Amino acid sequence: MQVPFNDLKRHYDSMAAELDAAALRVLRSGWYVLGPEVSAFEAEWAAFCGSKHCVSLATGTDALLIGLRALGVGPGDEVLTVANAGTYTTFAAHAVGATPRYVDVSPDTYTLDPALLAAAITPRTRVIVPVHLYGRAASLEAILAVAAAHNLPVLEDCAQAHGVRWGGRHVGTLGVAGCFSFYPTKNLGALGDGGALITNDAALAARVRQLRTYGWGAKYRTTVANGTNSRLDELQAAILRVKLQHLEAQNERRQAIAARYSAGLAGLAVQTPAPGASEQHVFHLYVVQVDAARRAAIQAALREAGIGTDIHYPFPDHQQPAWAERYADLRLPVTERLAASILSLPCYPELADAEVDAVVAALRTVLSADQ
Questions:
Q1: Residue 3 domain-assigned (yes or no)
Q2: Per-residue pLDDT tens for 200-225?
Q3: Nearest CA among 244, 245, 242, 230 for reference residue 34
Q4: CA distances from residue 161 to 24, 132, 189 in whole angstroms, order as listed
Q5: What is the model's pTM?
Q6: How many CB atoms lie within 10 A of CB 329?
Q7: What CATH number did the domain enclosing 228 receive?
Q8: Which residues contact 214 (CB under 8 A, 6 or more apart)?
């Protein structure tokens, strides 16, 4: 059985009539940027998350970048974050002229280890950016406690955490703001790029709205010098409005797939995701750990068996060629170990139980051949 790592065609097919109608509605409207679809989506996403304000943007990376800029983060400042989440937060920090300062992650959750956070804070620290990774919430209660003790804002990176809750509240609403990506593969994905920032702070939301459109105070009148052009298209907003109606059900399906994987892989030489409260993990990705020395061979054998896999992410930020020299002396033991051993298995709502079982069977065969 061929099991692709992801299949966006299936995802479209599951909602085709609704998506086609939404796209046609926009095409016939004659309004394609910052119109009624964007306004409606912003209101609906804010309501879903339990936030007072939502500002849609062109990408999730822009949400981070503009969020940092709106908080006044700039040259000479440090951004505390993690190095195992694909460089996006690192890129945003560098883009505003700040310096990322990395905290190692928990070996159980793969998210920022709050026990290491306080020791990483320096006089230059301006903001903490925890990443809710693979669909799992970071340890927000402990992170927020450290942040409060040092009077630091927390900007949540929620790019992989649509619908995740912590203590009954949606991620993105516990810190000063939450940044989301709507890249097509996300739990809530557009048919292209898209992003948003949610916040309960009206002044912060107003700054983000101004920054996303050239720093205009009024049309064609620039009153803020560091604005940019970062707008969500009407078409993408309309698509997201349709998909939002299915998000909870699709997250539940992801959780069911993950539970089937974890049960099927029990007893094998594979470390499955650590259990936690169901509201805290919506399995944007199902990530296991395998023997680092065998990972390439395992991945190749699964590919030969028709099973698609990926690695999220193979190179920690502090070891990326663009920045490695400045972090030459930095060691993040857990982050580095995970980068060498993690493997992502197919996990999307349209995946059939038989396909999950085929992945389990193939992995069982591959691992048994090693014994």
A1: no
A2: 999 999 999 999 999 999 999 999 99
A3: 230
A4: 29, 6, 12
A5: 0.97
A6: 6
A7: 3.40.640.10
A8: 222, 227, 228, 229
